[in-house]
Specification:
The structure is a homodimer of 223-residue chains. Helix content of chain A is 39%, strand content 19%. Chain A has 223 residues and is of the alpha/beta class. In chain A, strands 3-2-4-1-5-6-7 form a seven-stranded parallel sheet, with helices on both faces. In chain A, strand 2, helix 3 and strand 3 form a beta-alpha-beta unit. The relative contact order of chain A is 0.18.
Chain lengths: 223, 223
C-alpha cells in the first residue's frame, strides 16, 4: 500500500517533469537543479554565480526551504525574480517536486529568461528521487563533509550531471584525501563533471561560470 | 490518501517506539538517537565516545546508512556489538524507524548493556519526524554548516534534547557568528543542552562524556 502510493507520487512527478522539460525547451531556458546537504554553501555559491552572470544572462531563482525565507532574502539584492517555496506549508517536505516547480515557472516572464536556478532543500537523500525537468542536476559537496559521501548517498551522485566540490579554501585545515573522494565518485558515476571551487574566495569559479555560460548558449541554439 | 498513509506510518512508528521505551526501561539501558546532516562527524564522534566510555560501560551501536557498511567497519576495532541497517535494502529510506531499532535491540544481549548509540541516517529533515523510543535525541551540527540551520530545520532542533556543535577546531578559518547560532537555536528550543566539541582534537569532549556517564548512571538507578 505504502509502496503503491509512493509509486503514484513518483509517476505524477515524472509527468510534470516532462511538462517542465517541454516548456523550457520551447522557451529556450536552461535550468539547473542544485542539490546538497544542509550547509554545503549553495546560497553563497548562487550569490556568486548570479553576481557574475546577471550582466550577460537573464536569471530567475526558485528557492526551496522547509522554513524561513532567509536564502531568498540573501539573493534579493540582485533584483532578479525569486520564488520561494516553503515546504513547511505543505507538511515539511524534504524535497521539491516538479509540480511545484512548474507552478513557480508559470509566475515568471518566460520570454525574458535565459537561466533558472532551483535551490533544492538541503538533503542528500530525498531530492535525488525527484526529477524536476531540468537540464542539469548539480550536486554541491563541501570538503568539510568528508570523502565518503558518493559511496553513502549513491543515488544523488549517480543521477547528477555535475559535482561542485565547495569550500576548498578549508582543505589546508582538514585531513582530506582527494584521491579517496574521486575514487568513491567515479565508482558511482564515472561520467560526472567535476568543479572544485571556493565560493567564498572565488577560487575555481571561472571554470564553473564558463561551463554554465556555454550550456545556456547551447540551449539558446536549440541544443 | 497520501496524508492518511503517512499518518498510519507515523502511528505504527509511535507504537513501536513506546515498546522500545518500555524494553529499555526494564533493562535499564540508556539509548541515544544521534542525528545530523551528512558529514557532521557523527562516526568520528562515536569513535571517540566509545573509546572513552567502553572501559566503564557496556556499549552497543546501531548504525543507519542508506548504502555501505563503512561506518560500522570504522567502529569494529572497539569489539562491541554493532548492528548495521542498510536502508537501501528497504528502498533507500531517509530515516530510521522504531520497528527496525526494536528488531536490532532484540539481537543484542540486553542483560549486559548500559548504553545503545543509534547513528541515524545523515539527514536533517526526515529522522526528526520519527521517535525511536530513546532517552536522548542528540543533534550533531558541524560549524562548517553555518549558523542558520536551527531556523531552517526547526523540527530537528526543537525535538532534540542536546546539540553537539562539532568541528570547533575549524572556527579560526570560518567567519562564524556564534551569537547568531545561539540566537537561532534558542528561538526554536530554549531548553536544549549544548556541547561545543572537536571530536578530532578532543577539545570539549570531557563535558560531553560526563553528561553521558551521568545519564547512564541515572538510568541504572531507575530514573
Amino acid at each position: 500500500m505504502e509502496i503503491k502510493i509512493l509509486q503514484d507520487i513518483l509517476e505524477s512527478n515524472k509527468n510534470a517533469a516532462a511538462e517542465v522539460k517541454d516548456l523550457l525547451k520551447r522557451k529556450k531556458i536552461y535550468m539547473i537543479d542544485m542539490m546538497s546537504s544542509p550547509g554545503s554553501g549553495k546560497t553563497t555559491l548562487n550569490d556568486k554565480l548570479i553576481g557574475a552572470l546577471k550582466s550577460k544572462y537573464r536569471i530567475a531563482v526558485i528557492e526551496g526551504d522547509i522554513k524561513t525565507t532567509k536564502d531568498a532574502e540573501r539573493l534579493a539584492k540582485h533584483n532578479i525574480p525569486i520564488f520561494q517555496i516553503e515546504t513547511d506549508r505543505f507538511g515539511g517536505d524534504c524535497h521539491l517536486e516538479s509540480t511545484w516547480v512548474k507552478k513557480c515557472l508559470e509566475q515568471f516572464d518566460l520570454d525574458n529568461l535565459d537561466l533558472v536556478i532551483v535551490e533544492n532543500i538541503g538533503n542528500l537523500v530525498c531530492p535525488a528521487e525527484f526529477q524536476l525537468g531540468d537540464d542539469e542536476r548539480m550536486v554541491i559537496l563541501s570538503v568539510a563533509e568528508g570523502e565518503d559521501k558518493p559511496a553513502k548517498y549513491p543515488l544523488m551522485f549517480n543521477t547528477s550531471d555535475t559535482m561542485v566540490l565547495n569550500k576548498i579554501d578549508l582543505l589546508p585545515y582538514l585531513d582530506y584525501d582527494m584521491n579517496e573522494l574521486m575514487g568513491n565518485l567515479r565508482k558511482v558515476n564515472p561520467k560526472i563533471g567535476i568543479f572544485q571551487v571556493s565560493a567564498k574566495t572565488g577560487e575555481g569559479m571561472e571554470a564553473l561560470l564558463k561551463h554554465i555560460g556555454d550550456r545556456i548558449n547551447a540551449k539558446k541554439q536549440g541544443a
